[in-house]
TrEMBL record:
InterPro entries: MFS_trans_sf (IPR036259). The chain crosses the membrane at residues 59-78, 90-109, 121-144, 150-172, 193-214, 229-248. This is MFS transporter. Keywords: Membrane, Transmembrane, Transmembrane helix. PANTHER family: C-METHYLTRANSFERASE, MAJOR FACILITATOR SUPERFAMILY TRANSPORTER. Gene3D superfamilies: MFS general substrate transporter like domains.
Amino acid sequence: MVGWEYPTNPREASGLDPEAVHDAEEDTLGKEFEGVREVVADLRSLPPELRPLLVGDTLVRFANGMVYVFFVIVITQFLEVGLDVGPLSLSPAAFFGVLLAIEMLVALVSMPPAARAAERVGLKPVVALGFLVYAAFPALLISVPADTPLTAPLVVALFAFSGLRFAGLPAHKALIVGPAERDTGGRVSGSYYLLRNAIVVPSAALGGLIYGGFSVPGTGLSVSGSPTLAFGLASAIGLVGVAYFALFGEEYDAYA
């Protein structure tokens, strides 16, 4: 007959064995802090050559983020422009869908020529052109005259022009990865996009406040909205980014 064996370890007897209750290997808090430290270290160690590109890119993306969501409103409400060609008649909402398709088509068609151009003239001019399109588009769009025979053709031309901003994406990525040390391209890219996107987050809120206006409860302070001001300010911020990159951005020979 097997007798009852009493536990000889007091921790086992109490049922409070720390190793049983808490496995240090399963603790993710320390790993999370370590991950945060690694991200901060990566941000601090970004190659100096990337800083002008990062500043210019962030300003351009911030500008675009301020008004991007309002593009559809400008077409469907501010301009109220549709398309009438013979028997074909498109509402402003349907026409906006066509405009986006035109933009994407131009983007796809322009990427191969842009890549070949980057081989001849360098990456920086191609990237700068994409930044310029980003920056100029809002002011150009809000300046289109409404209710004229040229309204629809001008809008089509502008969205085709907007598609060129995507043509420089391959060159842009090459400029990001190029200065990175061997086998660190992924970490450098991740840190770059993390910082840029974090700064751009509030851009839509700022653009919305300027576009639609706002009031401060309890103070009687009220600011009327202005689509023209929102789009104009967005382009101004974007052009500052373009100028900064043009002046201080460095070339990287990706085809050496």
